[in-house]
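Hey everyone, long-time lurker, first post.

I ran two proteins through the pipeline my lab uses and got sequence/structure pairs for each. Pasting them in order. The first:
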Amino acid sequence: MACIAINKAFDNDGYGCYLVGSALTKRDYRDVDVRFILSDDGWSRLFGTDSPDRPDLHPRWSVMCASISTWLQSQTGLPIDFQFQQATAANAEFSRQTGHHREPLGMFTHPNPRDYAAALATE
Protein backbone atom coordinates (compact mmCIF):
# COMPACT_ATOMS: atom_id res chain seq x y z
CA MET A 1 0.00 0.00 0.00
CA ALA A 2 2.85 2.41 0.76
CA CYS A 3 4.11 2.07 -2.82
CA ILE A 4 0.80 3.28 -4.27
CA ALA A 5 1.67 6.86 -3.27
CA ILE A 6 5.13 6.57 -4.83
CA ASN A 7 3.71 5.10 -8.01
CA LYS A 8 1.20 7.96 -8.27
CA ALA A 9 3.84 10.62 -7.50
CA PHE A 10 6.08 9.47 -10.34
CA ASP A 11 3.55 7.88 -12.73
CA ASN A 12 4.43 10.28 -15.57
CA ASP A 13 8.11 9.35 -15.34
CA GLY A 14 8.19 5.60 -15.03
CA TYR A 15 6.75 2.15 -14.59
CA GLY A 16 6.27 1.80 -10.84
CA CYS A 17 7.79 0.13 -7.80
CA TYR A 18 9.14 -3.40 -7.86
CA LEU A 19 10.40 -5.79 -5.21
CA VAL A 20 13.78 -7.23 -6.19
CA GLY A 21 16.63 -9.01 -4.48
CA SER A 22 16.93 -11.55 -1.71
CA ALA A 23 13.59 -10.79 -0.02
CA LEU A 24 11.99 -12.58 -2.98
CA THR A 25 13.88 -15.82 -2.36
CA LYS A 26 15.22 -15.97 1.22
CA ARG A 27 13.59 -15.86 4.63
CA ASP A 28 16.74 -14.35 6.18
CA TYR A 29 17.04 -11.34 3.88
CA ARG A 30 19.18 -8.43 5.09
CA ASP A 31 16.98 -5.73 3.61
CA VAL A 32 14.00 -5.33 1.30
CA ASP A 33 15.09 -3.97 -2.07
CA VAL A 34 12.44 -1.76 -3.71
CA ARG A 35 13.15 -0.16 -7.07
CA PHE A 36 11.13 2.46 -8.91
CA ILE A 37 11.82 1.95 -12.60
CA LEU A 38 12.02 5.25 -14.44
CA SER A 39 11.66 5.50 -18.19
CA ASP A 40 14.88 6.68 -19.79
CA ASP A 41 13.22 10.06 -20.42
CA GLY A 42 11.99 10.17 -16.82
CA TRP A 43 15.52 9.46 -15.62
CA SER A 44 16.81 12.38 -17.70
CA ARG A 45 14.10 14.72 -16.36
CA LEU A 46 14.85 13.87 -12.73
CA PHE A 47 18.60 13.29 -12.76
CA GLY A 48 19.89 14.81 -15.98
CA THR A 49 21.93 13.00 -18.56
CA ASP A 50 24.52 11.67 -16.11
CA SER A 51 25.26 8.01 -16.58
CA PRO A 52 22.99 5.73 -14.52
CA ASP A 53 25.97 3.41 -13.97
CA ARG A 54 26.92 5.31 -10.78
CA PRO A 55 23.76 7.09 -9.58
CA ASP A 56 25.09 7.00 -6.01
CA LEU A 57 27.38 9.87 -7.03
CA HIS A 58 24.38 12.04 -7.94
CA PRO A 59 23.30 14.20 -4.94
CA ARG A 60 19.61 14.45 -5.92
CA TRP A 61 19.38 10.69 -6.49
CA SER A 62 21.01 10.01 -3.11
CA VAL A 63 18.72 12.37 -1.19
CA MET A 64 15.56 11.15 -2.89
CA CYS A 65 16.40 7.47 -2.41
CA ALA A 66 17.41 7.93 1.24
CA SER A 67 14.27 9.97 1.99
CA ILE A 68 11.90 7.49 0.39
CA SER A 69 13.72 4.55 2.03
CA THR A 70 13.22 6.15 5.45
CA TRP A 71 9.57 6.90 4.72
CA LEU A 72 8.90 3.35 3.53
CA GLN A 73 10.64 1.98 6.62
CA SER A 74 8.37 4.07 8.84
CA GLN A 75 5.28 2.91 6.93
CA THR A 76 6.14 -0.80 6.91
CA GLY A 77 8.53 -1.50 9.78
CA LEU A 78 10.82 -3.25 7.27
CA PRO A 79 14.46 -2.49 6.43
CA ILE A 80 13.72 -0.96 3.01
CA ASP A 81 16.44 -0.06 0.50
CA PHE A 82 14.62 2.11 -2.06
CA GLN A 83 16.31 3.23 -5.27
CA PHE A 84 15.30 4.82 -8.53
CA GLN A 85 16.57 2.80 -11.47
CA GLN A 86 16.68 3.70 -15.16
CA ALA A 87 14.60 1.32 -17.31
CA THR A 88 17.50 0.36 -19.57
CA ALA A 89 19.67 -0.54 -16.58
CA ALA A 90 16.79 -2.34 -14.83
CA ASN A 91 15.95 -4.42 -17.87
CA ALA A 92 19.59 -5.42 -18.28
CA GLU A 93 19.78 -6.50 -14.62
CA PHE A 94 16.38 -8.18 -14.34
CA SER A 95 15.76 -10.36 -17.34
CA ARG A 96 15.24 -14.03 -18.07
CA GLN A 97 18.86 -14.27 -19.16
CA THR A 98 20.19 -13.06 -15.78
CA GLY A 99 17.90 -15.27 -13.69
CA HIS A 100 16.86 -12.28 -11.54
CA HIS A 101 13.24 -11.27 -11.39
CA ARG A 102 11.07 -8.51 -9.96
CA GLU A 103 7.56 -8.32 -8.58
CA PRO A 104 5.32 -5.24 -8.88
CA LEU A 105 4.32 -3.36 -5.73
CA GLY A 106 1.37 -1.03 -5.21
CA MET A 107 -0.20 -1.65 -8.59
CA PHE A 108 -3.85 -2.44 -9.21
CA THR A 109 -4.54 -5.71 -10.94
CA HIS A 110 -8.26 -5.10 -11.43
CA PRO A 111 -9.12 -4.91 -15.15
CA ASN A 112 -10.50 -1.40 -14.65
CA PRO A 113 -8.73 0.28 -11.69
CA ARG A 114 -10.96 3.38 -11.78
CA ASP A 115 -14.10 1.27 -11.34
CA TYR A 116 -12.41 -0.65 -8.54
CA ALA A 117 -11.29 2.55 -6.78
CA ALA A 118 -14.80 4.01 -7.12
CA ALA A 119 -16.32 0.84 -5.63
CA LEU A 120 -13.92 1.00 -2.68
CA ALA A 121 -14.80 4.66 -2.08
CA THR A 122 -18.52 3.86 -1.72
CA GLU A 123 -18.04 1.05 0.82
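...and the second, right after it:
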Amino acid sequence: MGPLAGLRVLELPAIGPVPFAGMLLADLGAEVVRVDKLSESGLAGEFPAGPIGRGRRSLRLDARRPGGAEVVLRLAASSDVLIEGFRPGVAERLGIGPAQALARNPRLIYGRMTGWGQDGPLAPTAGHDITYLAISGLLHGIGPASMPVPPINYVADFGGGALFLVTGVLAALFSLAATGTGQVVDTAMIEGAAYLGSMTRTAAAAGAWSDKRAANRLDGGAPNYRCYECSDGRFVAVGALEPQFWVALLGALGLDDSAPSPYDPAHWDACADLLSATFKTRTRDEWAARFESLDACVAPVLTLEEAPRHPHNVARAAYTSVGDATLAAPAPRFSATPGATGPLTTPGADTEAILAELGYSASELDELRAGGTVG
Protein backbone atom coordinates (compact mmCIF):
# COMPACT_ATOMS: atom_id res chain seq x y z
CA MET A 1 0.00 0.00 0.00
CA GLY A 2 1.14 3.51 -0.73
CA PRO A 3 3.57 5.17 -3.15
CA LEU A 4 6.58 4.24 -0.97
CA ALA A 5 5.79 0.51 -0.91
CA GLY A 6 9.06 -1.43 -0.96
CA LEU A 7 11.08 1.34 0.69
CA ARG A 8 12.85 0.08 3.82
CA VAL A 9 13.36 2.63 6.59
CA LEU A 10 15.21 2.30 9.89
CA GLU A 11 14.05 4.76 12.58
CA LEU A 12 16.27 5.20 15.63
CA PRO A 13 14.92 6.34 19.05
CA ALA A 14 13.81 9.98 19.19
CA ILE A 15 10.90 12.23 20.11
CA GLY A 16 8.99 14.86 18.14
CA PRO A 17 9.89 15.32 14.49
CA VAL A 18 11.68 12.00 13.88
CA PRO A 19 8.69 9.86 14.98
CA PHE A 20 6.45 12.19 12.98
CA ALA A 21 8.62 11.64 9.90
CA GLY A 22 8.55 7.89 10.53
CA MET A 23 4.75 8.01 10.77
CA LEU A 24 4.50 9.89 7.47
CA LEU A 25 6.82 7.48 5.66
CA ALA A 26 4.91 4.50 7.06
CA ASP A 27 1.53 5.99 6.12
CA LEU A 28 2.83 6.40 2.56
CA GLY A 29 3.70 2.73 2.38
CA ALA A 30 7.32 2.44 3.55
CA GLU A 31 8.29 -0.56 5.66
CA VAL A 32 9.58 1.12 8.81
CA VAL A 33 11.51 -0.75 11.48
CA ARG A 34 11.87 1.28 14.65
CA VAL A 35 14.47 0.77 17.34
CA ASP A 36 12.93 1.58 20.72
CA LYS A 37 14.71 2.09 24.00
CA LEU A 38 14.49 -0.65 26.60
CA SER A 39 12.71 1.72 28.96
CA GLU A 40 10.75 4.88 28.25
CA SER A 41 9.49 7.64 30.51
CA GLY A 42 7.76 10.98 30.16
CA LEU A 43 7.09 12.43 26.72
CA ALA A 44 9.35 9.92 25.00
CA GLY A 45 7.16 7.09 26.22
CA GLU A 46 4.10 8.53 24.50
CA PHE A 47 5.45 7.99 20.99
CA PRO A 48 6.42 4.31 20.58
CA ALA A 49 3.05 2.85 21.59
CA GLY A 50 0.91 5.88 20.75
CA PRO A 51 -0.83 6.99 17.55
CA ILE A 52 2.24 8.79 16.15
CA GLY A 53 4.25 5.57 16.58
CA ARG A 54 1.83 3.57 14.45
CA GLY A 55 2.52 1.33 11.49
CA ARG A 56 6.05 0.21 12.39
CA ARG A 57 7.72 -3.02 13.40
CA SER A 58 9.70 -2.54 16.60
CA LEU A 59 12.61 -4.03 18.46
CA ARG A 60 13.86 -2.85 21.83
CA LEU A 61 17.57 -2.28 22.01
CA ASP A 62 20.25 -0.49 24.01
CA ALA A 63 22.90 0.44 21.46
CA ARG A 64 25.37 1.18 24.27
CA ARG A 65 25.43 -2.46 25.37
CA PRO A 66 27.66 -5.15 23.86
CA GLY A 67 26.53 -6.01 20.37
CA GLY A 68 23.96 -3.22 20.22
CA ALA A 69 25.76 -1.17 17.60
CA GLU A 70 26.19 -4.28 15.47
CA VAL A 71 22.44 -4.89 15.45
CA VAL A 72 21.84 -1.31 14.26
CA LEU A 73 24.50 -1.61 11.56
CA ARG A 74 23.02 -4.87 10.29
CA LEU A 75 19.65 -3.18 10.10
CA ALA A 76 21.22 -0.24 8.25
CA ALA A 77 22.84 -2.67 5.80
CA SER A 78 19.43 -3.97 4.78
CA SER A 79 17.66 -0.58 4.76
CA ASP A 80 17.28 2.12 2.13
CA VAL A 81 16.92 4.97 4.63
CA LEU A 82 17.98 5.60 8.24
CA ILE A 83 16.54 8.49 10.26
CA GLU A 84 17.85 9.61 13.65
CA GLY A 85 17.53 12.56 16.02
CA PHE A 86 20.60 12.32 18.28
CA ARG A 87 22.59 15.37 19.30
CA PRO A 88 25.66 15.87 17.11
CA GLY A 89 28.35 13.29 17.81
CA VAL A 90 26.17 10.84 19.75
CA ALA A 91 25.62 8.40 16.86
CA GLU A 92 29.35 8.46 16.14
CA ARG A 93 30.20 7.68 19.78
CA LEU A 94 27.75 4.78 19.71
CA GLY A 95 29.46 3.43 16.60
CA ILE A 96 26.39 3.87 14.38
CA GLY A 97 27.20 7.20 12.71
CA PRO A 98 27.16 7.87 8.96
CA ALA A 99 30.72 6.63 8.36
CA GLN A 100 30.02 3.27 9.98
CA ALA A 101 26.57 2.85 8.42
CA LEU A 102 27.62 3.88 4.90
CA ALA A 103 30.59 1.55 5.11
CA ARG A 104 28.08 -1.29 5.50
CA ASN A 105 25.67 0.08 2.92
CA PRO A 106 27.04 2.66 0.45
CA ARG A 107 23.54 3.20 -0.98
CA LEU A 108 22.07 4.22 2.39
CA ILE A 109 20.36 7.58 2.83
CA TYR A 110 21.31 8.66 6.36
CA GLY A 111 18.80 11.27 7.55
CA ARG A 112 19.82 13.35 10.55
CA MET A 113 17.47 15.60 12.52
CA THR A 114 18.64 18.21 15.01
CA GLY A 115 17.49 21.62 16.11
CA TRP A 116 20.66 23.54 15.26
CA GLY A 117 22.32 21.30 12.68
CA GLN A 118 25.41 19.11 12.95
CA ASP A 119 27.84 22.02 13.44
CA GLY A 120 27.96 25.66 14.50
CA PRO A 121 28.33 27.20 17.97
CA LEU A 122 24.85 26.19 19.15
CA ALA A 123 24.99 22.63 17.77
CA PRO A 124 25.93 20.96 21.10
CA THR A 125 23.24 22.78 23.10
CA ALA A 126 19.66 21.82 23.91
CA GLY A 127 16.66 23.55 22.42
CA HIS A 128 12.99 23.29 21.56
CA ASP A 129 10.71 24.62 18.85
CA ILE A 130 10.44 28.00 20.57
CA THR A 131 14.22 28.47 20.76
CA TYR A 132 14.81 27.52 17.12
CA LEU A 133 12.04 29.90 16.04
CA ALA A 134 13.57 32.66 18.16
CA ILE A 135 16.93 32.44 16.38
CA SER A 136 15.34 31.94 12.94
CA GLY A 137 13.70 35.37 13.13
CA LEU A 138 10.20 33.94 12.72
CA LEU A 139 9.03 34.01 16.34
CA HIS A 140 9.47 37.78 16.54
CA GLY A 141 6.70 38.26 13.98
CA ILE A 142 4.12 35.87 15.45
CA GLY A 143 1.53 37.11 17.94
CA PRO A 144 -0.08 40.38 19.03
CA ALA A 145 1.82 43.65 19.12
CA SER A 146 2.56 43.26 22.82
CA MET A 147 4.70 40.10 22.64
CA PRO A 148 5.70 37.10 20.49
CA VAL A 149 3.59 33.96 20.96
CA PRO A 150 4.88 30.44 20.18
CA PRO A 151 2.67 28.75 17.52
CA ILE A 152 2.65 25.48 19.50
CA ASN A 153 5.39 23.34 17.86
CA TYR A 154 3.99 23.23 14.36
CA VAL A 155 6.57 25.44 12.66
CA ALA A 156 10.06 24.28 13.67
CA ASP A 157 9.50 20.73 14.95
CA PHE A 158 7.07 19.45 12.35
CA GLY A 159 7.19 21.97 9.48
CA GLY A 160 10.86 22.93 9.50
CA GLY A 161 11.95 19.60 10.95
CA ALA A 162 9.96 16.50 10.05
CA LEU A 163 8.70 17.66 6.66
CA PHE A 164 12.13 18.90 5.59
CA LEU A 165 13.66 15.62 6.74
CA VAL A 166 11.21 13.66 4.60
CA THR A 167 11.75 16.04 1.66
CA GLY A 168 15.51 15.63 2.00
CA VAL A 169 15.29 11.85 2.19
CA LEU A 170 13.07 11.62 -0.89
CA ALA A 171 15.34 14.00 -2.82
CA ALA A 172 18.37 11.93 -1.85
CA LEU A 173 16.59 8.78 -3.04
CA PHE A 174 15.99 10.47 -6.39
CA SER A 175 19.70 11.31 -6.56
CA LEU A 176 20.55 7.72 -5.59
CA ALA A 177 18.70 6.45 -8.65
CA ALA A 178 21.04 8.51 -10.83
CA THR A 179 24.34 8.16 -8.96
CA GLY A 180 24.07 4.81 -7.20
CA THR A 181 25.53 6.27 -4.00
CA GLY A 182 23.90 7.22 -0.72
CA GLN A 183 24.52 10.34 1.30
CA VAL A 184 23.86 12.14 4.58
CA VAL A 185 20.89 14.50 4.89
CA ASP A 186 21.56 17.10 7.61
CA THR A 187 18.18 18.54 8.61
CA ALA A 188 18.20 21.46 11.06
CA MET A 189 14.88 22.69 12.41
CA ILE A 190 16.15 26.26 12.60
CA GLU A 191 17.01 26.21 8.89
CA GLY A 192 13.78 24.53 7.81
CA ALA A 193 11.80 27.07 9.81
CA ALA A 194 13.77 29.95 8.30
CA TYR A 195 13.10 28.53 4.83
CA LEU A 196 9.37 28.61 5.58
CA GLY A 197 9.76 32.34 6.15
CA SER A 198 10.98 33.01 2.60
CA MET A 199 7.81 34.86 1.58
CA THR A 200 7.92 37.36 4.42
CA ARG A 201 11.66 37.94 3.93
CA THR A 202 11.00 38.61 0.25
CA ALA A 203 8.29 41.09 1.17
CA ALA A 204 10.56 42.74 3.75
CA ALA A 205 13.33 43.14 1.17
CA ALA A 206 10.84 44.92 -1.08
CA GLY A 207 9.75 47.23 1.73
CA ALA A 208 6.33 45.55 1.94
CA TRP A 209 6.70 43.92 5.35
CA SER A 210 7.27 45.53 8.74
CA ASP A 211 9.18 43.84 11.56
CA LYS A 212 6.46 45.03 13.92
CA ARG A 213 3.95 42.39 14.95
CA ALA A 214 0.29 42.72 13.94
CA ALA A 215 1.26 45.46 11.50
CA ASN A 216 1.09 43.63 8.17
CA ARG A 217 -1.45 42.15 5.78
CA LEU A 218 -1.03 38.54 6.92
CA ASP A 219 -0.17 38.77 10.63
CA GLY A 220 -3.44 40.13 12.01
CA GLY A 221 -2.63 43.74 11.33
CA ALA A 222 -4.97 44.21 8.37
CA PRO A 223 -8.66 44.21 9.37
CA ASN A 224 -9.57 41.92 6.47
CA TYR A 225 -7.16 39.19 7.61
CA ARG A 226 -7.69 38.49 11.29
CA CYS A 227 -10.04 36.80 13.74
CA TYR A 228 -13.11 38.42 15.30
CA GLU A 229 -14.99 37.51 18.44
CA CYS A 230 -18.69 36.73 18.14
CA SER A 231 -21.56 37.16 20.61
CA ASP A 232 -20.96 33.71 22.14
CA GLY A 233 -17.27 34.29 22.81
CA ARG A 234 -16.16 32.14 19.89
CA PHE A 235 -14.42 33.40 16.78
CA VAL A 236 -14.57 33.63 13.03
CA ALA A 237 -11.52 33.90 10.75
CA VAL A 238 -11.67 36.57 8.05
CA GLY A 239 -9.39 36.32 5.02
CA ALA A 240 -11.11 38.67 2.59
CA LEU A 241 -7.89 40.02 1.07
CA GLU A 242 -8.99 40.54 -2.52
CA PRO A 243 -11.52 43.29 -3.36
CA GLN A 244 -14.20 40.90 -4.62
CA PHE A 245 -14.06 38.97 -1.35
CA TRP A 246 -14.19 42.20 0.62
CA VAL A 247 -17.33 43.29 -1.23
CA ALA A 248 -18.97 39.92 -0.47
CA LEU A 249 -17.98 40.28 3.19
CA LEU A 250 -19.55 43.72 3.45
CA GLY A 251 -22.77 42.50 1.87
CA ALA A 252 -23.07 39.55 4.27
CA LEU A 253 -22.46 41.85 7.22
CA GLY A 254 -25.11 44.33 6.05
CA LEU A 255 -22.49 47.00 5.42
CA ASP A 256 -21.74 49.00 2.27
CA ASP A 257 -18.74 50.52 0.55
CA SER A 258 -18.83 53.51 2.89
CA ALA A 259 -17.03 51.33 5.44
CA PRO A 260 -13.39 52.31 6.13
CA SER A 261 -11.07 50.71 3.58
CA PRO A 262 -8.88 47.76 4.60
CA TYR A 263 -6.48 48.67 1.79
CA ASP A 264 -5.28 51.87 3.47
CA PRO A 265 -3.32 51.28 6.73
CA ALA A 266 -4.47 54.69 7.95
CA HIS A 267 -8.02 53.26 8.14
CA TRP A 268 -7.16 49.87 9.66
CA ASP A 269 -8.16 50.72 13.23
CA ALA A 270 -11.50 52.22 12.23
CA CYS A 271 -12.23 49.33 9.89
CA ALA A 272 -11.36 46.74 12.53
CA ASP A 273 -13.56 48.49 15.10
CA LEU A 274 -16.52 48.40 12.71
CA LEU A 275 -16.05 44.71 11.89
CA SER A 276 -15.53 43.85 15.54
CA ALA A 277 -18.77 45.51 16.59
CA THR A 278 -20.68 43.86 13.73
CA PHE A 279 -19.42 40.33 14.36
CA LYS A 280 -20.39 40.61 18.03
CA THR A 281 -24.07 40.88 17.05
CA ARG A 282 -24.36 37.16 16.19
CA THR A 283 -22.92 33.84 17.31
CA ARG A 284 -20.05 32.13 15.53
CA ASP A 285 -22.29 29.47 14.03
CA GLU A 286 -24.85 32.01 12.85
CA TRP A 287 -22.11 33.82 10.98
CA ALA A 288 -20.73 30.53 9.67
CA ALA A 289 -24.12 29.63 8.21
CA ARG A 290 -24.40 33.02 6.56
CA PHE A 291 -20.95 32.87 4.97
CA GLU A 292 -20.81 29.17 4.09
CA SER A 293 -21.97 29.55 0.47
CA LEU A 294 -20.24 32.89 -0.18
CA ASP A 295 -16.84 33.66 -1.68
CA ALA A 296 -15.93 35.94 1.21
CA CYS A 297 -13.16 33.80 2.77
CA VAL A 298 -14.78 33.66 6.20
CA ALA A 299 -14.79 30.51 8.32
CA PRO A 300 -15.61 29.55 11.91
CA VAL A 301 -12.58 28.97 14.14
CA LEU A 302 -13.12 25.36 15.17
CA THR A 303 -11.64 23.56 18.13
CA LEU A 304 -9.64 20.34 17.82
CA GLU A 305 -12.76 18.47 18.89
CA GLU A 306 -15.05 20.23 16.42
CA ALA A 307 -12.89 20.05 13.29
CA PRO A 308 -13.39 16.32 12.51
CA ARG A 309 -17.18 16.84 12.58
CA HIS A 310 -17.24 19.70 10.08
CA PRO A 311 -19.25 18.64 7.00
CA HIS A 312 -16.38 19.31 4.61
CA ASN A 313 -13.96 17.21 6.65
CA VAL A 314 -16.55 14.46 6.96
CA ALA A 315 -17.18 14.44 3.20
CA ARG A 316 -13.46 14.18 2.53
CA ALA A 317 -12.89 11.55 5.24
CA ALA A 318 -10.15 13.90 6.42
CA TYR A 319 -9.84 12.33 9.87
CA THR A 320 -9.41 8.79 11.11
CA SER A 321 -9.27 7.00 14.45
CA VAL A 322 -5.94 5.61 15.62
CA GLY A 323 -6.07 3.97 19.02
CA ASP A 324 -7.88 6.38 21.31
CA ALA A 325 -7.11 9.46 19.22
CA THR A 326 -8.77 11.14 16.26
CA LEU A 327 -6.02 12.18 13.83
CA ALA A 328 -5.78 13.61 10.36
CA ALA A 329 -5.83 10.94 7.66
CA PRO A 330 -2.65 10.45 5.59
CA ALA A 331 -1.88 13.31 3.24
CA PRO A 332 -1.40 14.02 0.40
CA ARG A 333 -3.71 11.73 -1.55
CA PHE A 334 -2.69 9.52 -4.46
CA SER A 335 -5.01 8.29 -7.21
CA ALA A 336 -3.24 4.98 -7.87
CA THR A 337 -1.28 4.23 -4.68
CA PRO A 338 -3.20 5.59 -1.68
CA GLY A 339 -1.57 5.66 1.72
CA ALA A 340 -3.16 4.23 4.85
CA THR A 341 -2.76 4.43 8.62
CA GLY A 342 -1.14 1.35 10.10
CA PRO A 343 -2.09 -0.28 13.41
CA LEU A 344 -0.64 0.78 16.74
CA THR A 345 2.86 -0.54 17.33
CA THR A 346 3.79 -2.51 20.42
CA PRO A 347 7.37 -1.56 21.34
CA GLY A 348 9.64 -4.57 21.15
CA ALA A 349 6.99 -6.93 19.78
CA ASP A 350 9.06 -7.77 16.69
CA THR A 351 12.47 -8.09 18.36
CA GLU A 352 12.91 -11.83 17.85
CA ALA A 353 11.57 -11.83 14.28
CA ILE A 354 13.76 -8.91 13.20
CA LEU A 355 16.91 -10.37 14.76
CA ALA A 356 16.20 -13.70 13.09
CA GLU A 357 15.91 -11.90 9.73
CA LEU A 358 19.32 -10.36 10.43
CA GLY A 359 20.81 -13.82 10.89
CA TYR A 360 20.97 -14.01 14.68
CA SER A 361 20.64 -17.50 16.07
CA ALA A 362 18.64 -18.40 19.17
CA SER A 363 21.84 -18.65 21.22
CA GLU A 364 23.05 -15.26 19.99
CA LEU A 365 19.68 -13.76 20.89
CA ASP A 366 19.99 -15.24 24.38
CA GLU A 367 23.45 -13.71 24.67
CA LEU A 368 22.12 -10.27 23.68
CA ARG A 369 19.35 -10.61 26.25
CA ALA A 370 21.76 -11.71 28.96
CA GLY A 371 23.92 -8.65 28.28
CA GLY A 372 20.95 -6.30 28.58
CA THR A 373 21.24 -5.32 24.92
CA VAL A 374 17.75 -6.31 23.75
CA GLY A 375 14.44 -6.72 25.48
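Reply from user beta_strand_b:
Welcome! Quick read of the second one: The mean pLDDT is 96. The chain is about 35% helix and 15% strand.
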